[in-house]
Write a structure and sequence with these properties.
The chain is mainly beta. About 15% of the residues lie in helices and about 45% in strands.
Amino acid sequence: MGPEARPVLKTVKAFALALCFGFGASPVIAFDLKLSSSSADKELNAAMKAASLLVTLENDEAPRGQEVLAAAQADYARLIGALYAQGYFAPVINIRVDGREAAEISPLTIIARVNRVDIRVVAGRKFTFGTAALGPLPPFPEPPASYRSGQPATTGAIQEAVDGAISDWRDAGYAKATLGRQQITARHAEARLDSQLQIAPGPALRFGELRISGNRAVRTERIRDIAGLPTGQIFSPSELARVTTRLRRTGAFKVAALSEAEEIGPGNTLPIDLQITEEKPRRFGFGAELSTSEGVALSGFWLHRNLLGGAERLRFDAAIEGIGGQTGGVDYSLGTRFTRPATFNEDTDFFALAELERLDEEEFTVDRFNIEAGITRYASPKRTFEFGIGLQHARTQDAFGDRNYTILTFPGSAEFDDRDNQLDATEGTYALLSLTPFAAIEGTKSGLRTYADLRGYQSFGENVVLAARFQLGSMVGPALSEAPTDFLFYSGGGGTVRGQEYQSLGVTLPSGREVGGRSFLGLSGEVRVKTTDSLSVVGFYDAGYIGEETFPDGSSGDWQTGAGFGVRYDTGIGPLRVDLGLPVSGPGDNNGFELYIGIGQAF
């Protein structure tokens, strides 16, 4: 053989060796897996399957031998963890790879292929707690019921006890509470687990300095005002959560991350670090809805999140409604609202707004201008109150002729919201009560307009949700002929009775013309059934009442009802809603149908 052939021969030999030792493209063949357990505990067996890497790897089309061996050797610890979590502390586990115990195979051994893996688990007896000691604990809290003598002994129960004790100490102001010593002894003969856990609460701490970093456009002193950290008061995790809520509520921050300092400050104070990432200052958006009777509605907004460097918001909204509709002309609205967070304290915002609106409906037209200023009070993450004072002037045309009026308004509202999702609620309740006393300056009389909106949601299993809504409206003071036209109530349409035409129910005068009523009652119910991960079907029934009296008595006025079905498609930001409503009863011929398309549930 000539010298020129030797490099080629060396290359061939190297390639052959690589194939033999698995460094090249080794064969990839599926393997058979059998997992047998001595226990009839279905929950345990399911947990072991979920923990096993081999079970996961079995579903791969072509796992390599080395991958199977690595998974088998890792499964000892993973299966033991699953067994301990279910209370089995004396198991025997055998994992055989082609007849050889996986633990006895060197990880460096090259395995080209694996044909069969057998996992055999002898779970043994299920342990219960003998001694279940935990302490010290702050006043009043007790260990969880799962961590007591005689209860099933599981690592989950031990962890729950530790986490609960630390959380209780932190709630009491001991921010550095941690697990001190632990002694866990398994008594195999009695199938008992003795557990002694000692908590080290550390010193009681007070809130120290709020150390802010990352902000650029929003001033540091304004961030401190908005956060409202109660420096000097006893440490409280719930207070930290409220600080985070206040910062996120402004909309000016993409990230507002709070962390407790590692070191304890002078006088047992705990500094808090706040890392800020600001949102882009400007944002715009738009929306559209379609109804067969009301036509197309288009809306848009422009928002500045940090107008003056203190997270002040300035927002402009514009909307055009009734395009191509059959319920009057086209409606226009334009409004602006300025909001300054943390004006009087960290949970009270100041706002000022101005609105210009034209409503062109079948039975009336209104040209209205309104200015208002007030405060928004966030009493809790679920409860919000708003109070204001405003001036409103309107020019109206309805069955009573042309009128101008000017009123001074004192609007107030209370809102409670514990829904799990505002656009697609499956659990929780929502309540809104608004009261608007008004003092007449010209063209009408003084009075009070009230409106309530109550909603409830209940899920049954993972796929069925029942939703219900109750609406109540009343106006006290002026007679029907003197009342502000846009303060009266109508029924019909997407917000009240689907299937009935928009504002098709009011009070019929002797002349045959219709005006709004001084009282309103609305009832709605939906059954929402999820059919796939992203698709749901909905059945609904709505009823509405309008009366001339100041409070609905259900008999002096008229009722209308509607029913139908719809579909929802989950878009990620909210369900795309398509509803087909049919009139059921009420004044009129009750023929035809109404189609509604929008984003979010109907209520």
